[in-house]
Backbone:
């Protein structure tokens, strides 16, 4: 085994280790932004190391140039995708702006030039029923609500009629009741949830 093969093996091993760390971070971290960090940063660096190791091992300039193109595509799309997922999470209420030292997105979303008048996270189209809700010179901040309890997980939909009852049309048979096992799992999650 030559020194080039040893270097290639070490680079590929470190790259794979970073990919494993990214996967563990995706599963272990709590917040959306921490998971985005775990998904984007180690993955891009790990891919760089794996591609460098493969290029050293194979020794082909053609393969190396192809891997550089793939790496450049990854390095341009992964950060952009992370930013867009983070913005979508903020607009949908999964991220609180007040939890961070600098919140540049809330005031920007609340300006009258915001095309999302009904604060649903999507730019309103012409003829939207909810258009103009933030009119009359009133600047409204987005209503980002993060549930502090697991009520959404443990709520039951008792108003939904059972399948087969007289209140249900034959075409609209939907049974949305949770099974006992799912209810127990939801209660266990609610008990373990560290949020107040």
Residues:
């Amino acid at each position: 085994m030559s020194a080039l093969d040893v270097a290639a093996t070490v680079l590929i091993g470190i790259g794979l280790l970073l990919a494993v760390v990214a996967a563990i971070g995706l599963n272990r971290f709590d917040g959306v932004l921490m998971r985005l960090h775990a998904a984007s940063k180690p993955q891009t660096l790990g891919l760089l190391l794996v591609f460098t190791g493969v290029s050293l091992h194979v020794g082909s300039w053609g393969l190396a140039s192809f891997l550089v193109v793939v790496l450049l595509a990854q390095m341009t799309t992964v950060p952009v995708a992370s930013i867009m997922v983070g913005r979508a999470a903020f607009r949908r209420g999964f991220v609180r702006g007040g939890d961070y030292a600098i919140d540049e997105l809330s005031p920007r979303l609340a300006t009258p030039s915001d095309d999302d008048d009904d604060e649903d996270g999507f730019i309103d189209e012409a003829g939207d029923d909810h258009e103009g809700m933030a009119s009359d010179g009133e600047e409204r901040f987005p209503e980002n609500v993060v549930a502090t309890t697991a009520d959404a997980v443990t709520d039951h939909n008792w108003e939904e009629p059972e399948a087969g009852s007289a209140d249900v049309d034959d075409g609209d048979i939907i049974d949305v009741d949770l099974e006992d096992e799912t209810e127990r799992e939801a209660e266990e999650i609610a008990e373990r949830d560290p949020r107040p």
